[in-house]
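testing teh design pipeline on a random one, pls ignore if ur not involved
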């Protein structure tokens, strides 16, 4: 299982690179925000700059080059996008599930970057205020990820009919069953990760759920015309893949408890 979980970083890097390409391709899209992560304002120069930064970050993470620095800076970028662009929209329309989901998707991307950077942290070499602040930010990644998962689960119930309609007809069982199951999985995984109870298993299975979503729900949509020309479909698909990668990054960062040594084999 460890060898599978280690692929989480590569899946996340691929998703970040795709977000960068989408920003560059959609740089001249009209409207207040681009329809892709991280929803920068639709000034072409800013979209090109953001897209280039995301693409470079994805390549650096995949190539294992300055991963801790890259993921820390990338996490700060997502956090700034959330604080400057998304939070005010949530405050203006707190009951709008779409707006809230967008904000927490960006926060989830931020949290994954922080988790990745935190998993690569060595022993602290400085006790300066700035160093402690950065470490505190990195350690918050797990809890921001858990919070996002819980919000996603609650939002599933607020747009339950839409979620049911997204379940393909060829999947056994009813859409009602699968929509309930995924909503419960979101909330349960978030709580488990937050309280550190069976968190490694929760993160592993959470990532598997997102991988299945990517393969079964999103991939067929982005491959079909006219959806293949819709940047929202591509963004949604690779958000799911990034969540898969992020969940497995978290699972990999959680050490498994050592097996207890039988009393008759303990060293004297």
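output:
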């Amino acid at each position: 299982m460890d060898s599978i979980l280690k692929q989480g970083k590569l899946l996340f890097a691929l998703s970040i690179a795709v977000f960068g390409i989408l920003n560059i391709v959609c740089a001249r899209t009209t409207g207040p925000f681009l329809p892709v992560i991280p929803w920068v304002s639709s000034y072409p120069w800013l979209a090109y700059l953001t897209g280039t930064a995301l693409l470079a970050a994805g390549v650096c993470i995949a190539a294992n080059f300055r991963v801790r620095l890259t993921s820390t800076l990338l996490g700060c970028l997502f956090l700034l996008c959330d604080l400057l662009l998304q939070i005010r929209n949530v405050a203006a329309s707190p009951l709008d599930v779409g707006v809230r989901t967008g904000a927490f998707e960006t926060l989830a991307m931020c949290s994954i970057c922080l988790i990745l950077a935190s998993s690569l942290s060595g022993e602290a070499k400085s006790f300066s205020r700035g160093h402690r602040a950065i470490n505190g930010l990195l350690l918050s990644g797990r809890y921001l990820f858990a919070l996002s998962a819980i919000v996603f689960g609650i939002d599933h119930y607020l747009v339950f009919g839409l979620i049911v309609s997204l379940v393909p007809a060829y999947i056994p069982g009813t859409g009602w069953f699968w929509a309930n199951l995924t909503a419960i999985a979101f909330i349960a995984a978030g709580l488990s990760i937050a309280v550190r109870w069976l968190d490694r298993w929760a993160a592993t299975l959470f990532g598997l759920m997102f991988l299945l979503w990517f393969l079964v729900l999103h991939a067929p949509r982005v491959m079909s015309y006219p959806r293949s020309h819709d940047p929202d479909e591509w963004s949604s698909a690779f958000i799911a893949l990034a969540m898969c990668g992020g969940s497995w990054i978290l699972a990999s960062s959680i050490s498994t408890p050592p097996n207890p040594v039988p009393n008759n084999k303990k060293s004297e």
